[in-house]
Write a structure and sequence with these properties.
This protein is mostly helical and about 160 residues long. It is built from seven helices and no strands. The longest helix is centred in the last third of the chain and has 23 residues, at about 105-130.
Length: about 160
């Protein structure tokens, strides 16, 4: 047995920029941001035009805030999609919730977890090449080991949790 090592990212502080999402006028602003972050996750930051849009939509003060938000979102995506211990779809809700520090804004956390639970299975299909995702096609040559055993469950019932 061995202890768990915390994977990359400096804990609570790295989630701090996500609080700026409270300024979004509606949920679709956040949803679009998450889609953009997924599409551009291999890059250092969002494309200039998208960063500018985000800056305007969230009425940000500093020029580097879009990049901070982008990096915070990407670290969530990495933990749920590409990390070695990324959870199967079945446990997404529980595991996504654990990514937020204690004392994080409860309503925002709930909204983001719901969003991730809805999006991650689709994004995962994009990475596995079973679905044509917007932007940037073919994920790496990851072995698709664990996926099979969950397939029945996934197809079996999307219970509304």
């Amino acid at each position: 047995g061995g202890g768990q090592r915390g994977g990359g990212g400096g804990g609570a502080d790295s989630r701090q920029p996500l609080l700026l999402l409270l300024r979004a006028s509606n949920e679709s602003v956040i949803e679009k941001l998450f889609d953009d972050c997924f599409a551009h996750r291999g890059e250092r930051s969002l494309p200039k035009s998208k960063a500018a849009t985000l800056h305007a939509e969230l009425k940000l003060e500093r020029a580097d805030q879009p990049r901070e938000i982008y990096q915070a979102v990407c670290s969530l995506l990495y933990a749920l999609l590409e990390a070695a211990d990324a959870p199967p779809n079945l446990f997404l809700k529980r595991e996504a919730g654990k990514l937020f520090p204690d004392g994080f804004h409860e309503d925002l956390k709930e909204l983001l977890v719901e969003l991730l639970v809805r999006k991650v299975p689709r994004w995962r299909d994009c990475l596995n090449g079973t679905l044509d995702g917007g932007g940037g096609g073919g994920g790496g040559g990851k072995k698709k080991g664990r996926k099979e055993e969950w397939r029945e469950l996934e197809n079996g019932g999307g219970g509304r949790g």
